[in-house]
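Entry for the shared binder. Reason: the reviewer on the internal report wants the predicted structure included alongside the sequence.
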Amino acid sequence: MQNQARVVWEQRWHPLREEWVLYSSHRGGRPWIGDTHAPQEESAPSYDPTCALCPGNKRLTGANPRYEGAYCFTNDLPPFSNEAPAPLEADDFYSALQVAGTAEVICYHPDHAKTWVDLTDEEVLAVVELWRERTQELGARPEIDHVLIFENKGSLVGTSNPHPHGQIYAGNLIYGHTAREVQSSQKYFERTGRLLGQEIVERELAGPRVIAQNESFLACVPWFARYAYEVLILPRRQMASITDPDERERTNLGLMIREVATRYDNLWQMPMPYVMAIHQAPTDGQEYPAFPFHIEFHPPLRKPDTMKYLAGPEIGGGSMTNESNPDEKAAELRAVSPIHYKSNSQ
């Protein structure tokens, strides 16, 4: 067993999702003879003639222009659309709604081989500006109640195309995590008069889990992390949406995302897979001044070759188990360089 002082063996309350997370860090080093994934460098050409996201290439509907910066287009096979049919069968018990709205793809860069770690300061700002612009435009549409922006990076999280890109799902569904964060932040404010997101910021700034920070944002492995290397990017002041930061703050947000992605890659000197999601207030016409805008990173790996599988406790029981100590995982990420291991300046 590990040194007892470093063992976290307890339940911790997740204040955003209002659920318990079970910690059993003494099990992190248990013998593993299950499936492993050999760490390997993912290499891609700067242009792939078969890629549906590269400039000038054909897609299912039409073709891409020869774009030179961040580029957005409507998903060829969207999960949300105003052209979706009405439900075929529904009643008060088995209720159903039309999936109104739209979905878009955000290409971060025309170069097929780049990721966040390769983007310049101006290029990361361009992506954040596009997120802001699309949130404003889509959120103003009467049928769109929520704008979910996310990125799936790496084959281990199911990415079918390595071109640097993310997606936007904008429709009449308020996703479950956002709905719970609406409730948790409102209840916390009504009970204490304080803002939930800022309470988390104050706690994390006073603790050992901050891995990076600038004048506008901080990144941490939170006390209530559900995954071993989960990272939250939190604003230093109250924000509810990607539309709230001013230009300087948007620049700092892009830089912070790039630094988190760089520290991930530097941890094991390999491209780190992850799911990144922007958590922002719904756009259903109501006011959400207490909503805690933040960005979440969920890497599926707990070791360079070992996945964190969702199994009996998570899928069958419905509660997460984290077999690590967030303080230690934060220390690992904080100890690596903020300059990418492949950079000439490293």
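Summary line for the report: The domain at 43-87+96-335 is CATH 3.30.428.10 (HIT family, subunit A).
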